[in-house]
Design goal:
This protein has 429 residues and is mostly helical. Helix content is 72%, strand content 1%. It has a two-stranded antiparallel ribbon with strand order 1-2. It starts with 12 loop residues before the first helix and ends with a helix.
Length: 429
């Protein structure tokens, strides 16, 4: 029986990883069948499929975002109306009026919570599957079986590998207890994350001199599946940049630099394609949130490039592929949303709500009518006109009556004009 390697042990995430691992394993089997077994390609196809599966959630979030932009003016009025009022009664009224607006448009204030709760475990699981490739792809694990058996046959292998990991700063993504006898999974965990230079140092260990041929064979096999466009995806861009600079391999250097650059650029484009607020908020809190969002849209792509330098290139490939897919998704969703009427969205939301109420044994609810009654007091009281404004209005009214020539017979304006003309004739006499 083929027992897979160490997997993610994170709570909940590990179960999501099991599902995603089956998908990753299936993709690799297909690639292997057609003669192109490659982890980099597997990660790209893996990312495409996952994002396609998440497309309905993306659309739901965009719909909520569009409804939020429509509701924003009313919500801002409520915030402005109760600005500075911290008493319990005012806060309760503010909450009631806010909920009335959400009811008016048939949406829930927690509309984005469920999509996020669905997406977050999947995104974390994606990283775990990529970090533990042999744990979820049985054929990749089997490539290490020869080297694992050979190392297990060496006396004191745990102590030797412990010193090797420490001396060569090997980054492990699984917990390995060197105080006990190493299992086949432990050894495979170590071997999978080795960089080409670290493989060379492993074969130079005197205790492993008798198994150097086996180690070299495994290294060649694993390098072939981890090479993507001439770069080993188990390495970080920074490692490749250093080795390429020292060996003056300029094409390799350019390829390594492109990974963080593309990670930044694709992330930046994807943020730019996201719907922007329709109008600026007059509320200080709202304005602060807008500024924060703009800052995040600028900083996050830069942070992606920075982190990409030290993470494995496999993670960089995932980030770039994911950002490209999001860009394509966003263009399609934006076109779809631009042709969608807000009234239709409200009607759809009301229909969904009434279906939920029907399941609960409740009668249908006319949300829009109810909400219109609830939000009747949202508008701020009109400002009293100043004495100067009133005087100007009287002046304009007088000029209107004096200059009017086409007044309707019998109207109040015509009667006033007749009185004015009579007074003027009397004065002349």
């Amino acid at each position: 029986m083929d027992i897979l390697l160490s997997k993610s042990t994170w709570f909940i995430i590990k179960w999501v990883c099991e599902v995603l691992g089956v998908l990753m394993n299936g993709i690799y089997i297909v690639l292997d069948t057609i003669g192109i077994p490659n982890i980099g390609l597997a990660i790209i196809f893996f990312t495409i499929i996952i994002y396609l599966i998440l497309t309905p959630i993306q659309i739901k979030q965009q719909k909520f975002s569009k409804m939020t932009s429509v509701m924003q003016p009313e919500l801002q009025k409520i915030q402005k109306k109760y600005q500075g009022k911290k008493d319990q009664n005012s806060q309760m009224k503010m909450q009631e009026e806010t909920m009335a607006v959400y009811q008016k448009y048939g949406v829930s204030p927690t509309g984005t919570c469920l999509p996020l709760l669905i997406q977050m475990p999947i995104m974390f699981a994606l990283y775990q599957v990529i970090y533990h490739i042999p744990g979820y792809i049985g054929s990749v694990r089997n490539m290490f079986s020869g080297a694992v058996e050979a190392i297990q046959g060496i006396s004191g292998n745990a102590e030797i590998l412990s010193k090797f990991v420490q001396d060569n700063a090997v980054r492990l993504y699984s917990n390995v207890n060197f105080e006990e006898a190493l299992t086949a999974n432990n050894i495979t965990d170590i071997l999978y994350v080795l960089k080409p230079s670290q493989w060379d140092k492993l074969t130079d260990i005197s205790a492993f001199s008798g198994i150097s041929d086996v180690l070299n064979k495994v290294q060649e096999s694993t390098e072939s599946i981890n090479m993507f466009l001439g770069i080993n995806i188990t390495e970080s861009p920074m490692d490749v940049i250093r080795s390429a600079w020292s060996s003056q391999s300029w094409l390799l250097l350019i390829g390594a630099l492109l990974i963080p650059i593309l990670a930044w650029f694709t992330q930046w484009i994807s943020y730019k394609l996201m719907p922007q607020p329709a109008q600026k908020s007059d509320n200080p809190q709202g304005g602060g949130m807008e500024q924060s969002m703009k800052m995040m849209n600028t900083v996050m792509p830069i942070m992606s490039a920075f982190f990409c330098l030290s993470f494995s290139i496999g993670i960089g490939i995932y980030w770039i592929a994911g950002a490209v897919i999001r860009c394509v998704q966003q263009v399609i969703i934006n076109r779809h949303m631009s042709h969608m009427d807000v009234e239709d969205l409200i009607a759809q939301n009301q229909e969904k709500l009434n279906k939920k109420r029907a399941k609960q044994g409740l009668p249908p609810q006319k949300i829009t009518q109810q909400a219109k009654m609830n939000v009747r007091n949202i508008e701020e009281p009109k400002k009293e006109k100043s004495s100067e404004e009133k005087r100007q209005e009287r002046k304009n009214s007088t000029e209107y009556y004096n200059n009017a020539t086409d007044l309707k017979p019998g109207s109040l304006a015509s009667k006033a004009n007749m009185v004015r003309q009579y007074d003027e004739k009397k004065k002349k006499k």
